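Recap from last week: sequence in, structure out.
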Amino acid sequence: MSCFSCTRNAQPDALPLRERIAGDAHWRVAHAFDTGLPGWLILVPRRHVTALAELTDVEAAALGSWQVRLSRALHEATGCVKTYVAQLSEAEGFEHVHFHIVPRAADHPADLIGPRVFGVLRPPPERQIPVAQVDELSARLASLLGGGERFVQ
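Predicted structure tokens:
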């Protein structure tokens, strides 16, 4: 079984901006693919770990900082009133620990509040955010986070 995140982490500078919005020696920030919600970010450890308890103390300390930085950047870029943070890492090929940082707008549909927000992940193609829109938002977020142009190693 291959690990999607490890494959993408192997050559971060070769990734499109939407998959390397920001990062450091321990974490990479990407916009989710197959989503109907602009700004759905994924925070991925740069090394392979399959459980939260496997993070080093340094990785764990950086995790908290990244979650707050991403929430602030999403608020600035999208106007969201809050962000959801979730970590499951159970889907085949996606067992690599990763965190969903999800913007929740003031007018977010009531039927997609809380954990039901995952209802906008993997919608039919016609309801997915166009790549051009994802790229534009990714560039804005990269600017706010000081990343993107050259992935920070």
